[in-house]
Amino acid sequence: MPDKNANLTVAGRSASLPLVEGSQGPSCIDITNLYRETGHFTFDPGFGATGSCKSAITFIDGEKGVLLYRGYPIEQLAQKSNFLEVAYLLLEGELPNAAQFTEFEHAITHHTMMHESVKNFLHGFHYDAHPMAMLCASIASLSAFYHDTANPNDPEQRKLAAIRLIAKMPTIAAAAYRYSIGWPFRYPRNNLEYVTRFLHMMFEVPSEPLQLNPVVAEALDLLFILHADHEQNASTSTVRLVGSTGANAYASIAAGIAALWGPAHGGANEAVLKMLTEIGDAKHVDKAIARAKDKESGFRLMGFGHRVYKNFDPRAQIIRAKCHEVLDALGVNDPLLEVALKLEEVALKDDYFIEHKLYPNVDFYSGIIYKALKIPTEMFTVMFAIARTAGWIAHWIEQHEMPGGRIFRPRQVYVGATPRDYRAIDKRP
Ligand code: ACO
Fold this sequence. Notes:
- Strands 1-2-3 form a three-stranded antiparallel β-sheet.
- By secondary structure, it is mostly helical.
- The chain is globular, with a radius of gyration of 23 Å.
- Helix content is 52%, strand content 6%.
- The N and C termini lie far apart (65 Å).
- Bound molecules: acetyl coenzyme *A.
- Acetyl coenzyme *A binds at residues 46, 264-266, 268, 292, 300-307, 356, 358, 361-363.
């Protein structure tokens, strides 16, 4: 019988630390009592070796390139499901039957309107505000609109917040975009399904009906499925950290949006496109690769590398195939795609990228598809936020349903000044 504890002795004090087993994946050492028993705590900047919670939502095996939502392989969901069904799966733990799906879709559809005052709120921004800034602030502002039904300790109110957030995120996202280009806001049309409704809110003008190629909605739905959840990534961990304080769902998700914005996370899709545009031509790719390998340059290949996937990102494989299909179907001949393919080809053969296990991630291709779909570059990370809302809120709810939740409060290794006496201003150097 293998030992179910890890035994650690440090500076003459010992701790017997229990192993924690999940249903899949490596076992973990429970260090909750480490400090009490040894007087030491752990140092893990970036949390690469730290599990912050138990979760039954998403499983990743980074070595094998496996991604499961509630046990279902991402490849099967990408091929057979749709975003709303995936959102239900993430929230409820099971795929819906026909009646459950109808009820869920109805609930989402009938919560898509935003309060007219949210429009006024959006009107307060400068016209060139970044849509992520507008989205983040507007979602935080929903706490003010729904303060009477935002109790995180009430299961019904938690569920209502989930429905509202998944329903309203596309409405607010489209409004942020239209505001930036001076177009009037478009109300959500309930006769359309989720993704098509969003595209109408984005692109329909009052003067003529929108002719939408079905390939566009199909591709966007796929991208939403692939981005819907990814276990304890930076933004989801942020949502859980804020949620652990007892903050309401709207405040917690707004924090997740802020975390997503950075180029090391969801902002990478926008950064990829800017990088490809800067490289400009496939013949400049070698120079870009050399720069990315030079630590002094401070330049990284955007859309390459992942904290967890060290062989391939399964989402990138799905999206890569779709990328070509979409460009062909829409008749797009984008020179940036040539740059992207060359970059991918050279990087995958390069010793530095092989040794560092750096492969294209999901954001490397998503930007190219978004561009082909005529989604403006500043909106790329907003697209990610719409999809990830399903995962964020599923994690926020799970956190509240799981017993034994505590406020997230990491420790630090203090490297500052040791105690010293205050000096009057005229006595300071
Ligand atoms: N280009 C060049 N070198 C890189 C890159 C890159 N894109 N990514 C990592 N490296 C190098 C680092 O310089 C480091 O080298 P060293 O060990 O010789 O010092 C090594 O690879 C490990 O890098 P870390 O930053 O420690 O890896 P970490 O797991 O912390 O970071 C991250 C992962 C943030 C994704 C990183 O690979 C990166 O910055 N990539 C570019 C941004 C990006 O595409 N982000 C999207 C992530 S996916 C998502 O959020 C949906």
